[in-house]
Amino acid sequence: MPDEIGPEFFVRLRSDLLVIGDSILTDRHHASNGNYDPTDPQNQIGGIIPSFSLSGWLRHGMERVVQNHGETVCHPGEANANFRKDEVYDRDLKAGYHEKGACLDESDGCVILDLFGGLNNRPGKVMRRPIQFSPVRASVEYTRGQAEGHYRRVGRQVASRNPADGRESLRAVELDAVANLDGAWHLRFREQTPEFIGLLAEAIRFLDGHRTDFLHQLGGARNFGGGIVECELINPLYTERELRRVFDRRGEDTASMTEKDERWQTSHLPEFQSALTDRIEPRRDARGEPDD
Ligand SMILES: [Zn+2]
């Protein structure tokens, strides 16, 4: 592992609208003291996007990358769980998944189990952090995994379809949302191996390329265009200063950043990608399947 690549990685995430169910934690203490009005767009509300949804989104992208290499991965659900929809679980098992932990019978486990853990309290080797967001750009610390983002409460009216009712509202739904998100999601490998970095890089590229696929949008409100996320692995060779520059709309990339992009693309990334292939594909040979 080259010394200049540490265990910290940042993924740039940009989204016009993110709805994380009911689980955005808001932080209103610096909003208008005592006369908080949730509909006033001037409210300066920051908050936290918990990592559960982000983690599921990343995991799904990584699963796809491994499956595209022709290998199965751990199903996210416990094998002995009582699934409400057994037939859907069985169908998953035929479509690129094995029962969680089944991979331990013939190896040290698949790379997804390694990274996300979850069996017998085995911790995952990638630590996913929540993203703290703030509407005040100047106070966002990208190098600490923060984002600019604007908390919004979105109201939806569900109207009656009966012509006699004149679209009378049947019920109103309120959703917590973050609008105009742009920031850095901080990930850290507890144990760093070249194949983990290769998988992270490929998964982020896959997710960016499939960002409008329903399956790879993030969070709720997907039918309404929510959760379309542009994402990019920020060059791990960058210094903190260069990382901040990525988010600086006035600044151009420096010559040093261009040189690092070149080095990342032509020298490091291909090495990490072939480490990933080596990790995934020998398991197939070991089972005696044809090796082209
Ligand atoms: Zn597995």
Give unreliable regions as ranges.
none
Structural class: alpha+beta
Order of helices and strands: EEEHEHEHEEEEHEHHH
The share of residues in helices is 25-40%
As a whole number of angstroms, the C-alpha radius of gyration is 22 Å
Secondary structure tally: strands: 10
What does this structure look like?
This protein has 292 residues and is α+β, with helices and mostly antiparallel strands. It has seven helices and ten strands. The chain has helices at residues 51-68, 86-94, 111-116, 194-209, 240-246, 255-280, 282-286, and strands at residues 8-18, 25-27, 46-49, 73-74, 97-98, 126-128, 131-134, 146-159, 169-189, 229-233. The strands form two sheets. Strands 1, 2, 3, 6, 7, 8, 9 and 10 form an eight-stranded mixed β-sheet that branches. Helix 2 links the parallel strand 4 and strand 5 (97-98). Helix 1 crosses helix 4 and helix 4 (194-209) packs across helix 6 (255-280). The longest helix has 26 residues, at 255-280. Zinc ion binds at residues 73-74, 98, 103, 109-110, 112-113.
Q: What topology emerges from the helices and strands here?
A:
Layout (H helix, E strand, L loop, with lengths): L7 E11 L6 E3 L18 E4 L1 H18 L4 E2 L11 H9 L2 E2 L12 H6 L9 E3 L2 E4 L11 E14 L9 E21 L4 H16 L19 E5 L6 H7 L8 H26 L1 H5 L6
Parallel strand pairs: 4-5, 7-8
Antiparallel strand pairs: 1-9, 1-10, 2-3, 3-7, 6-9, 8-9
Helix pairs in contact: 1-4, 4-6
This protein binds zinc ion.
List keywords for this structure.
10 strands; alpha+beta; 292 residues; two-stranded parallel ribbon; binds zinc ion; eight-stranded mixed sheet
